[in-house]
């Protein structure tokens, strides 16, 4: 009985799906020779997509729905790898501003096509057997669930 207690629980199944997608993407990154996690890449891509806009650690936390300690750890590792740099915001010393380094931009530029192909392949595999209309409903439902939990 205990094995199936949460079998039909949507949250548990979404977490399992997230774990599987994250594991696949992390393995795909390693196969490209990129020793970063999917979450680290998400932070870098968010910075890349918003170049020229000063972004704070708090904005990254909010956008990616990460905890403060998780974001700090990710940022620390990315700084140590020379992929991002941080600076304290002059007007508010509590805020940390993030930006890609030239090395970080080069990494994303070098691998962007391959990364997109890997992400698209994982998405296609995940959605195999689900028609376009159901995919639209599923995405809308997941977005609603996210808003409900914020």
UniProtKB/TrEMBL annotation:
PROSITE patterns: HTH_MARR_2. It comes from the Bacteria. Signal peptide: none annotated. GO terms for molecular function: DNA-binding transcription factor activity. Residues 7-150 form the HTH marR-type domain. GO terms for biological process: response to stress. Pfam families: MarR_2. This is HTH marR-type domain-containing protein. It comes from Levilactobacillus namurensis DSM 19117. The lineage of its organism: Bacteria, Bacillati, Bacillota, Bacilli, Lactobacillales.
